[in-house]
Structure formats: C-alpha cells, structure tokens
Amino acid sequence: MTSVAIVAMTQPPASPDRFASDAQRWSALCERERAADGQFVYAVKTTGVFCRPSCASRRPLRENVEFFDNVQEASRAGYRACKRCKPTQEAFVDPAQRAIIEACRLLEGERALRSDAVAARVGLSTAHFARAFKKHTGVTPQAYRRRVFAQRAKRELARTASVMQAAYAAGYATPSRFYDSVAPELGMKPSAIRRGARDQQVHYTVRSCSLGKILVAWTEQGACHVGFADSERRAIAELREQFPRASCERSAVPEWIDSIVAAVERPQALDIPLDIQGTAFQQRVWAELRRIPLGETCSYREVASALGAPSLSRAVANACARNPLALVVPCHRVVRANGDASGYRWHPKRKQALLRREAERS
User: Fold this and answer.
1) Looking at 51, 55, 224, 248, which residue is catalytic?
2) From the candidate CATH numbers 1.20.120.1630, 3.40.10.10, 3.40.50.720, 3.40.980.10, the one assigned to the domain spanning 3-92
3) Counting CB atoms within 10 angstroms of each CB, which of 206, 273, 285, 303 has the fewest?
C-alpha cells in the first residue's frame, strides 16, 4: 500500500455537506484539506487535468477551475488524472463506485445476467444497486448492456461476411435477440448498418429566417435534422457530415415543415414526427428537454436530476451539444446554474435570440 493510500484511509470521515457548494470546495482546495479527498475532485480547464483537493500542485486561477463529484464524472468530461496526486487511485474511489465499475465489466461479458444477479456479485442489494448504477451511468443496468452489445454488433457488421456472423461475434445468443436489440438501439436495421446506410433516403429543404439559414431534413419516419447556418452551402455540408453515406436530396416538403420554420419567429410548441438517433442516455436527455415548457429554462444539473442522475450534469451538456434537432428538441432552454446562456451548437447569439423571443411570448 502506498503512503498516499494510508493517508486517505486514516483521515476521519468528512460530512459531504461541508463540501456541497463550489465556494466550500474552492476553500478546501485553497487549504489543501485532506478531509475533502474523496468528497470531490477539481479540474483545471487550461491543463486538462483533474486533482484531489489536497494536491500539492500550484493553485490554479478560480475561473479555470471546474468541480466534479467524483473521478468518473471528471473523466467523462474529458479531463485526465493528475500524475502527482493520482486521484484515480483505488483508495480514493468509494466502495459504491468500485462496485459499479465491476458491474459494468459483468454486464459487458458474454454471459447474460439479470440485474439482481449482478447486484449480488458486487455485494449490493438489488434496490441499492439499481439506484447507484443509474446515478453513476445515467441508464439502467440492462439498458447499459443493450447499448454495449449494440455498439459491439455495429463494429462486427462492418467487418464480418454476414449479418449472422456479426450477431454471434458480438455475443448475442440467438438471432432474434440480435434483431430485437440492434435496430431500436442504433436507429436502423442491421442490414442498413452493414451497408453503411448507403441506401438511406434523407430529404431536406433550406429556408431563410431572421437567424440566418435553417435546414430541415427528414426521412420516412420524421424529422432527423434541424440546424441553423450562416449560408445554405454550410447548412447542406453539416447535413452531409451527419449522414455521410445516405442519399440526401432536396424535396417537396411535408406540411409540418412550415411549423418548424415559423417557430423561429413566433415560438410555439412543436408536435411533429421524429427520426432521431442517439445513445440510450442521449435519447433520455432529449426526451426530457422536450418537457421544458415554452418560455422556461433549466440548468444542466436540473435536467440531470430529473433523469435521476444529478451527478451527470456534464454528460447532459454533452448530449445537448450533440442534439441534431434545433427547436424541435429545445436544447437552447438549458442554461448554466447562474442563468448564463453558455454555449450552443448553432452559436450562442442564436440561443439568446430564441430565449428572448420565447420569454416575450410566454
């Protein structure tokens, strides 16, 4: 056992309430409180590194610091562990987090396991395991397993000689389980994935509006892309980046297209057919965004809390950044905790304009 591990284990337990706010965490960072180790980590935007509160590294500027509840959250946000204080060392990870890491390994295995069996293997009650797993990953254990296997199948489909070979290579026990799982998770049939979606038909139209150009694209199922751009050329280029192997063509528009364009100038609730693809967690975030009423906003943490995973606010922000349907999935209604409009995939000024118009309409 290293000296760092001994120190971490012999410190008296600290109340989480002592480090609940960013102000308290900043104070603990400045004082290099060892009692705060295990309660949170801090990341430095300019270096891309996250540390324990007690790290002996030079104190960063406050505006460059971001706080996270645990090492997993910091890693998901794209930061790497400090080599000096080693925040990912096992003694710094609480038992519940270690149990979830082991559970993920079990769920990723070829053997199908019920959630209660996984809970027993990692030493947690079924109810506690279900809550802890969703808190740390944002999805249920079985949703996590389905997504892992679907992504594995997607890789196999690109390199095996047949769809059935891909199914067995990915770990599916029967063809029926493969077909029942892959299409809902990945948004298209296995045969289409294998062809690289070359025969997928995507129709689009480009309109002018007060915020520049707006492109609306759709398939037979419904709207698959809505985006703003400064020029028609750029709008079409972004569509082709999203669907690189699909057949994209300008087409006559369904009636519901007009309601999307009209909502730019006169905000309104949109109830249109959708064909939206994303991970299980992204789908949950996007569904929650559609529940935010016109004229109101939520913070990233509030959205995460509504999903039952308050520690995943950064993951919510990433899902917002990958939202393919402007206006329809109103990611512009999600702001920072201090009310700052922050970033927006189609430029912050457009986000501010949309929020201002919605506020005037409500």
Assistant:
1) 51
2) 3.40.10.10
3) 273
